[in-house]
Write a structure and sequence with these properties.
The protein is of the alpha/beta class and about 325 residues long. The protein contains eleven helices and twelve strands. A hairpin with a 5-residue loop joins strand 8 and strand 9. Helix 1 runs parallel beside helix 2. It starts with 17 loop residues before the first strand and ends in an 11-residue tail after the last helix. The mean pLDDT is about 95. The structure holds S-adenosylmethionine and iron/sulfur cluster. S-adenosylmethionine binds next to strand 3 and strand 5. S-adenosylmethionine (SAM) binds next to strand 3 and strand 5.
Length: about 325
């Protein structure tokens, strides 16, 4: 019997057309908000999806209605077979994009172009090199900064992800907005989210409201223009009159966008997560390796999706370490 597309519809009226695939649990940076200093327990290599398995699983999702795939990690570009994975996925009828720290992206310009990757999200949390070193625990600021310009020069649509941490980089909010004055980029301020091992607490988070206080204390109200957000967009977009680029706020903590969520996540070891905040996972890889169909497993996982933030529907619940530490560290989820 032919399977229908409805396996990607959940019980809260949401259809899922966007799959984020983490290619790797390792990274060439060590961002404090993403992973603990001592590192994370890595899966044995044999437990990670091969490029053929990534393709087979992705194709099942595409056959059932996924139209957009984002490759992430860890750092997706340090996976040796990244070009092969990209080439295989580019044969599917989907929009392909990646999220990268951009440290080595200059080596991949041609392969990205050849496989129709037009949109790239780059993480950069500080425009000050010493702060960058502090937060990433590595000296790679110049490479990332130069590579952002290289991507723009090569015609990629670039979004810059900035995770804000109170008292650390919130004094760079205006510098980042001014970075969009002459550059056609979209800077996205992300509220710091809790995951296992990242020492999160609410007092370190800079909220949407606080970001807008910074904006309004610097720019005249009439120059701050609210833009139309794309459908299923997780961010609220703005620009400053006369600026080439734009900025946005992703407020997963204070103002979650769960109502319009259309995302699913596949971890590098083949586990389907129905929500970024979910503490439960569905093992697609073992099912595939047993030669059993994965569609029923996907369907059950999608139907089990909570309405809001993996069941942490209030800030009080999100704040409880016994709830949010049941989840993985972000580096092994794939943001
Ligand atoms: N290495 C790539 C990168 O940094 O862009 C891709 C993987 S990284 C896990 C994906 C995104 O998750 C990055 O933009 C990063 O800033 C974001 N992220 C990681 N930990 C986070 C946290 N605790 N709160 C908010 N965003 C986080
Ligand atoms: Fe690596 Fe990206 Fe996590 Fe930073 S945010 S440690 S670059 S995976």
């Amino acid at each position: 019997m032919k399977e229908t597309k409805h396996i990607l519809n959940d019980t809260h009226g949401r259809a899922h057309a966007y799959l984020r695939i983490s290619l790797i649990e390792r990274c060439n940076l060590r961002c404090t908000y993403c992973m603990p200093e001592e590192g994370v327990k890595l899966s044995p290599k044999s437990h990670l999806m091969t490029y053929e398995e990534i393709y087979t699983i992705a194709k099942t999702f595409v056959d059932h209605g996924v139209t957009k795939i984002r490759l992430t990690g860890g750092e997706p570009l340090i996976r040796k077979d990244f070009p092969v994975i990209l080439e295989r996925l580019a044969t599917l009828p989907v929009e392909l994009s990646i999220t990268s720290n951009a440290v080595i992206i200059d080596k991949f310009i041609d392969v990205l172009k050849a496989n129709n990757v037009n949109s790239i999200n780059v993480s950069l949390d500080a425009l000050d090199a010493s702060k960058f070193k502090h937060i990433t625990r590595r000296h790679e600021f110049k490479k990332v900064y130069d590579n952002i310009f290289l991507l723009i020069k090569n015609g990629f649509k670039v979004k810059v992800n900035v995770v804000l941490i109170k008292g650390f980089n919130d004094n760079e909010i205006i510098d980042f907005i001014n970075f969009t004055k002459d550059l056609p980029i979209n800077v996205r301020f992300i509220e710091f989210m809790p995951f296992d091992g990242n020492k999160w607490d609410m007092s370190k988070m800079v909220s949407y409201a606080e970001i807008m206080e910074y904006v309004h204390s610097t720019f005249p109200k009439e120059h701050v223009i609210r833009l139309q957000d794309a459908p299923n967009d997780t961010s609220k977009n703005y620009t400053i009159t006369g600026y080439k680029g734009s900025f946005a706020i992703i407020s997963s903590v204070t103002n979650p966008f769960c109502d319009s969520c259309n995302r699913l996540r596949l971890t590098a070891n083949g586990q389907l997560k129905n929500c970024l905040f979910s503490s439960t996972e569905s093992d697609l890889l073992t099912t595939l390796r047993k030669n059993e169909p994965i569609a029923p497993v996907i369907e059950r996982a999608v139907r089990a999706k909570f309405k809001v933030r993996g069941g942490m529907d209030t800030l009080e619940k999100l704040e409880k370490p016994q709830l949010h530490t049941k989840n993985r560290s972000m580096i092994t989820i794939g943001g």
